[in-house]
Amino acid sequence: MLRGVGLGLVLGLAGLLRGTALALLPVAVGLVVRHARRTGGRPLRRALTLVAATALVLLVPVVHNSRLAGRISPPTLNGGVNLYIGNGPDANGFYVAAIPGDWRTDPAGRGFLAEQLDRPALSLAQADSVWSRRAWASIRHDPVRAAGLWARKFRLHLQGWEIDQLLPLGAWARDVGPARLLVVPYGLLVALGLGFGLWVLVRRPHHPAARWMLGLLLIISLQSVFFVVSRYRLVLAPLWALLAAAFLVERKLRWRTRGALFLAGLLVALPWGLGGVQKMFAAQARANEARRFALLGQATGSRQDLQHARELYLKALASGAPGGAPWRGLVAVDGALGDGPARDRDLRLALESRPRDRELLKQRAADLLASHHEDQALPLLRRILADHPRDADSLHNLAVLLAGRGGSADRAEAERLAGRLVAYHPEDPRGFVDLGVIQARSGRREAARATFARGLALHPDNPELQRNLRILESGP
Asked: Which end of the chain has the smaller Cβ count within 10 Å, N or C?
């Protein structure tokens, strides 16, 4: 019984770290039941004990998330967005940037959904519900496509190449060459373990390796419901290592059978038929590595690291790295190096390549404002807000720009923009500052005082709000 409790607690904790680990629960139940039958125990009682111990670990986060979402929810509230990325209209099996914006600051796409649905804000639970509904709607609309995507993702779990999109895992090999000797390639583990694991699962189901293979297949099956990146395959590495080691030490295998199983695993591990996908991801890997050196250079002030980051960004872009992030990174590195001409040139090239990229457009608008070319910045800010009416920086910049022009129509529009900034982004004190200043300059002192007070209630330590309120209360 203690063994079942311990195993259940381990599985529950593993499920908190990564929910797909719970795919091992049926295997664990089978092992506990089998052990109980061998030792004269009570199989049902031990199985229920195992399940109860697992559920006990998960109970608190499940109850908490379910109360937030208004429905039964898992321990983490990122399943909906991951399901959408892996099955939505743009899904291709890999991680795709289906949600505009920076996934590092808003991984659930709450800001994007709030703007799209014209709502002030969405909680994490609400966003999870929206993404879940959209994902299942896409699956129901074309179940054949969804099944094909699942099969492709299953296959991608078995292939021995790095799917480098979100995190540069392979760059260390270029920095520390001798360390390659300490690492067994993922593809080799698959080639050694796959054929052998399937063989024991069919021919020798009581072999310990059969249980490892069954658990591995269950995890892959569950993960393939979502999408595939290299770091999501790391959880499989321990099971592949066990299977590969068992294959190498298994004495009852004939050499001919051993060779056939290895060849079968090798053929599956080779990335057949992916066309330019690997080339694109190799370019993305360079961009990821460039960002790493850019952050290092900015943190330490190392021009050498910044120069290396620029070289990597240029190589990534020349190789076809997708999206606007590599361009934005290159422009930022130019600025960190103090190379104004290169920055202006690269920003111009970036906008030619990505003319609707919001961050690039905002950077251009900020440059124009800083150089006092307000007339050129004005249409650019309107263009950004036409596509992204809730963009906080553009609402602020345009409100300030119009408020300073002096015309009554401009001031009225500036006040509307500042009001939208307050309504859409109450967490941003600039909206309260802008709105209060515009009201004060229009002679509505009480309205301005109320706006500053409302802002200070949310941002009590904001110096701009404090200063403007003091000025307002000091006299005309």
From this structure: C
Distance CA 255, CA 248 (A): 11
323: left (phi over 0), alpha (psi -120 to 50) or beta: left
Residue 309 near residue 329, CB atoms below 8 Å:
yes
Tens digits of residue pLDDT in 237-288: 999 999 999 999 998 888 999 999 999 999 999 988 777 788 888 888 889 8
| Closest CA relative to residue 346, chosen from 308, 321, 310, 305 | 310
Task: Determine if residue 151 is left, alpha or beta; phi over 0 gives left, psi from -120 to 50 gives alpha, anything else beta.
Answer: alpha
HSE-up (13 A, CA, CB side) for residue 69: 25
**20 HSE (CA, 13 A, CB side):** 23
Report the first-to-last Cα separation within the chain, whole angstroms.
79
22: tokens are 């719970």
Grouping H, G, I as helix, E, B as strand and the rest as coil, residue 275 is coil
Beta bridge partners of 228: 94
Q: Hey, what long-range contacts does 260-266 have (CB within 8 A, 24 or more apart)? A: 260/195, 261/195, 261/196, 261/199, 262/191, 262/192, 262/195, 263/195, 264/194, 264/195, 265/190, 265/191, 265/192, 265/193, 265/194, 265/195, 265/196, 266/191
